[in-house]
Design brief:
With about 150 residues, the chain is of the alpha+beta class. The protein is about 30% helix and about 30% strand. It has helices at about 15-30, 85-95, 115-130, 130-140, and strands spanning about 45-50, 60-70, 70-75, 95-100, 105-110, 145-150. It has a six-stranded antiparallel barrel with strand order 1-2-3-6-5-4. A hairpin with a 2-residue loop joins strand 4 (about 95-100) and strand 5. Residues about 1-20 have low confidence and may be disordered.
């Protein structure tokens, strides 16, 4: 049996840890108009609700996001794991999703970025949150960068 985390002290260092603490983070996000404490207190956090690629069920995941014009973008880093996060696989199977930013919820579509756009956006993320550069150094995979654009 896993020990229960102490609120505000969860250290997310691997894929399994990300899933273990999501319900607490999601509840705090929704109760506080999109703000959370702990290690995410200074980051822009969004909730992405995707449709499970295998299950067809909705899956909500908190992610750090960045802005680029009217769109936002997210990094599928999985904390530097050699495997992509589940939400990324869900978006490959079904790119339509629901996004929650602050108290705003909207329908959106996700697209993978490539080439110079991906390089520019990843560099922008690293400049804002250097941990993404550390994640890149930990893995051999190319970390995907997804553009999320409002459709409704």
């Amino acid at each position: 049996m896993l020990a229960q985390p102490v609120p505000g002290t969860a250290e997310i260092t691997d894929r399994s840890g990300m899933f273990e603490y999501n319900p607490e983070i999601i509840a705090e996000f929704r109760a506080n108009g999109g703000r959370v404490g702990g290690r995410f207190a200074t980051m822009d956090l969004a909730l992405l609700t995707t449709i499970g690629a295998r299950t067809g069920l909705p899956r909500t995941t908190p992610v750090v996001y960045f802005t680029d014009g009217a769109a936002i973008f997210v990094i599928a880093s999985a904390a530097g794991s050699d495997r992509h996060p589940a939400w990324y696989h869900n978006l490959l199977a079904n790119p339509k999703l629901t996004v929650e930013v602050g108290t705003d919820a909207y329908q959106a579509v996700a697209t993978s970025t490539e080439g110079q756009e991906r390089t520019r956006l990843f560099a922008k993320a690293v400049a804002s949150q250097p941990g993404f550069g550390e994640y890149k150094a930990k893995t051999r995979r190319r970390i995907p960068v997804l553009r999320i654009e409002r459709i409704i």
